[in-house]
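Write out the 3D structure for:
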Amino acid sequence: MKKTILVSVLLLALSVNVKAQLLQIGVKAGVNYANFSGSSVQTDAITSYQGGLVAEIKLLDKFAIQPELLYTTQGATYKTALGDFKNRLGYIAIPVLAKIYLGKSFSLEFGPQASFLLSEKNNFDVNDSNTFDFSVDAGLGLKVTKHIFIQGRYVLGLTEVSTNAQSKNSVLQLSAGIMF
């Protein structure tokens, strides 16, 4: 009876350890270099930020799925004859990325991202932004240690930012995070 209990406890401890290796949860934050692409009006990029929760679900030795829940600000500065007007859009973004490890700590990441508009701050009175943005993300990741990582990513918007313009989001992201 004692051997059965001991074996059961050992198997339970082993399964908990295996599950912990398959799922990691963490936080990340970083800087965005955002602009609008496809606009007929000249725009300049703005520097903004992003941050939130990240998870990694390890499916194979060299393959994982990385869902994230981020708050991200994007936008651009419009150049007109009347002056410069900054448009800053705040989104809740949900990227779901395929993560392919090219080595022990270096990874290639790509996948879709759905974003929902929460706020719009601008220097002129135009509130015609679409409330949904669909993008594709591609980038590289590096595990600095077992728990600390850095990422570089490009986010290419596929839907128009505004109902009155043909602009799409275009964002370069650099971030760092900690996995628990």
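Confidence is low (pLDDT under 50) at residues 13-19.
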